[in-house]
Please model this.
Amino acid sequence: MNKWLPLNLKLQKLRAKLLNDPYYRLQSGEEVQMAAELGLGIDANQATVDDWLRLPGLSIHQGRSLVELSRAGLVFYCIEDVAAALGLPVQRLEPLKPLLNFNYYDNNSLDKPQPINPNTASVESLSKIPFIDLSLAQTVVENRLAAGPYRNLADFQQRLKLPGDAIAQLMYYLRFL
Model:
């Protein structure tokens, strides 16, 4: 019966399941594809056991193994790496590919941004942050002086009327104290 639901109704039902249950385990390749369309993604290099368990066909032992390997320093660059770590043929994991992201994190990098507190930062230090030009830096300081300190990232976004994609870039450079 469920197979014949219109796609948008299926997406709505899956969205409701995902929103209501953060541990919802996807049931099929079709649900994996729909979850990816809804914006769900799992970073293979920072995934928790619970993240891995959301994927159909993976056991708790496999999830734990992947997390332990990742914590020990193994970096997954592609679905083939995950398959090799689990001793599985890559074809078995191929349906999971739409949800998996393979981001690389260099823990020894000297280029790690040092977050700046926008509640105490000067216009000059704010303007050194990528994505903040001199005009925005001045607006940040003026707003802070007029309305008080920013409570958090959401407050910062709302008060400055910044779009979500801008906040997505800035959140790595700001720390609210």
